[in-house]
Design goal:
This protein has 78 residues and is α+β, with helices and mostly antiparallel strands. 27% of the residues lie in helices and 17% in strands. It has a single domain, classed as Alpha-Beta Plaits (2-Layer Sandwich). Strand 2 and strand 3 form a beta hairpin.
């Protein structure tokens, strides 16, 4: 399954998103591409199971990329 995450822009973001996915399914395989802001997850769990964890981590799955998003988003950072 694939997710588009608008604020997935760097390696640090990838680590936090992967941690969020693994909090739902520790055995999930995660591939991420910050350039396209896409992640692909291979898991036996349904897509809907991951949405709350991504939201809580500050990386909600969203629609098309907002062109104004240009830098790494770190939840809680000023």
């Amino acid at each position: 399954m694939q997710f588009h995450i608008e604020n997935l822009t760097c390696g640090g973001c990838v680590k936090r998103v992967t941690t969020a996915i693994h909090s739902v399914d520790a055995d999930a395989e995660v591939w991420a591409d910050p350039r396209s802001r896409q992640i692909e997850v291979q898991s036996g769990k349904p897509r809907e199971a991951f949405l709350p964890a991504l939201e809580k981590a500050g990386y909600p799955a969203a629609g098309p990329l907002d062109p104004e998003v240009a830098s790494c988003h770190v939840p809680g950072a000023a």
